[in-house]
Design a protein that fits this description.
23% strand; alpha+beta; 15 strands; 341 residues; 8-stranded mixed sheet
Length: 341
C-alpha cells in the first residue's frame, strides 16, 4: 500500500523551496534566534510589505488616478517628481512608522532623513532607499524598481545632517532591490551571498526562487546610455567603440538601473553610467543606488568601481553625493579599466 504522506525527491525540493519565505530565510542567514536576528527579519519583512504595496498600485496604472504622470513638483535632485515617486516614498515611510525597527529613513526624494522619534530609543537600523528607480519607464509600462540599503543606527542626531551616514559603503549590513516586471522579485544580501525571491500574489508572500547567486565572470552584455556618447571623456568613448568592433557583444539598456543590474547579475556583463562634461560625478546617488548595488554585486562575485576607486570605498561628503558607476562581471570591469588608465 502506498504511503500518501511521502513525496518523491523532486516534490520535496519544490515543496521545501515553496515554504521558504523571506522572513524565514533572513533568520537562517543570521543563524541565531536573538532579538537582533528577529529585528532584521522583521525589517526585511517590512521592506517586502512596501514592495507588495507598490506592486499592487502599479498593477492598476491607467485604471486609477495618481499612478501615472507627474506631480508638478521638483525633488531635492532637481528632477520632476512622478506620482509614483511620491506614492512609493510615502509607502516606505508608512511601512516603518511604529515598527520599532528603524530610527530614521533617508531617501533620494527627501532633502533630509525622516526621523521616527518613538522608534529611536529601540530602533537599531537606518534604512536608505530609492523608492522608484527608472521613473521614466512608469508611463510606458516598462520595468522599474526600488533599491534599499540597511545600516546600523549610530548616535541620535536629529539635526538632519546625518553625518554618521557619510561613511564608506562597506558599513552597510545589508542591501538589495525590488524589481517590478513580469513578476515582482526581491533580491537581497546580508553579506552572506545573494538570494532572489519571487512574489506569489495568490498567497501574498515572497518565496525563495534562487539562492546563493553567482554571476558569470564575463558576459557579452553591455548596458549604457549611448545617447550621452559625445558628453563622455575620450577613454570611455574609446571603450564603447571597442565594444562595437567586437563580434558577439550585445547592447541592452532599459532606462531603469534595477532592471539592467538584474539582467547582468544573472547573465553577466557590464553596466556603465560614467560622468559627463560638466557633470563629472555622474547622475547616480552613492548612498541610495551605487553603494547598495555594489554591495550586492560584490556578494555575487562581481565588482563595482567609479573608474578610479572601488564604489564601496567611496566616502560621501554629503547625503546626496553622486558618483560614476562601472559595475558588473569581474572581467568586464577589468576590461573597462584598461581603457581608463
Amino acid at each position: 500500500m502506498l504511503d500518501s504522506t511521502r513525496l518523491n525527491p523532486a516534490e520535496e525540493i519544490v515543496l521545501g523551496r515553496d515554504f521558504m519565505t523571506l522572513s524565514q530565510h533572513v533568520l537562517s542567514q543570521v543563524g541565531t534566534f536573538s532579538p537582533a536576528a528577529y529585528d532584521l527579519s522583521a525589517l526585511m519583512g517590512r521592506i517586502g510589505l512596501a514592495g507588495k504595496t507598490i506592486a499592487r498600485h502599479l498593477s492598476r496604472a491607467g485604471l486609477v488616478e495618481n499612478v501615472l504622470g507627474v506631480t508638478g513638483e521638483v525633488n531635492v535632485q532637481g528632477e520632476a517628481v512622478k506620482n509614483m515617486d511620491r506614492y512609493a516614498n510615502r509607502v516606505f515611510l508608512r511601512a516603518f512608522e511604529q515598527s520599532g525597527l528603524v530610527c530614521r529613513l533617508a531617501s533620494e526624494e527627501m532633502e533630509k532623513p525622516y526621523y521616527i522619534p518613538e522608534n529611536c530609543p529601540i530602533g537599531r537600523y537606518t534604512l536608505l532607499y530609492d523608492p522608484i528607480d527608472g521613473s521614466s519607464n512608469i508611463d510606458v509600462n516598462l520595468a522599474i524598481g526600488s533599491i534599499f540599503s540597511i545600516r546600523q543606527q549610530e548616535g541620535n542626531d536629529e539635526s538632519g545632517e546625518a553625518l554618521d551616514l557619510l561613511q564608506a559603503g562597506r558599513k552597510q549590513i545589508g542591501a538589495g532591490y525590488i524589481l517590478y516586471g513580469t513578476s515582482t522579485m526581491l533580491v537581497y544580501s546580508l553579506g552572506k551571498g545573494v538570494h532572489a525571491f519571487t512574489l506569489d500574489p495568490s498567497i501574498g508572500e515572497f518565496i525563495l526562487s534562487q539562492e546563493n547567486i553567482h554571476m558569470p565572470t564575463k558576459g557579452s552584455i553591455y548596458s549604457v546610455n549611448e545617447g550621452n556618447f559625445w558628453q563622455w571623456q575620450e577613454p570611455m568613448r574609446e571603450y564603447v567603440r571597442h565594444m562595437h568592433s567586437q563580434a558577439g557583444n550585445t547592447a541592452r539598456y532599459s532606462g531603469a538601473l534595477v532592471a539592467d543590474i538584474h539582467r547582468i547579475l544573472f547573465q553577466g556583463g557590464i553596466f556603465l553610467y560614467p560622468g559627463t562634461v560638466g557633470h563629472e560625478d555622474g547622475k547616480l546617488r552613492l548612498l541610495y543606488e551605487s553603494a547598495p548595488l555594489a554591495f550586492l554585486i560584490e556578494q555575487a562575485g562581481g565588482r563595482a568601481t567609479t573608474g578610479t576607486q572601488e564604489i564601496l570605498d567611496v566616502i560621501p561628503d554629503r547625503l546626496h553625493t553622486r558618483t560614476p558607476l562601472i559595475i558588473g562581471s569581474v572581467e568586464n570591469v577589468k576590461e573597462v579599466e584598461s581603457f581608463l588608465i
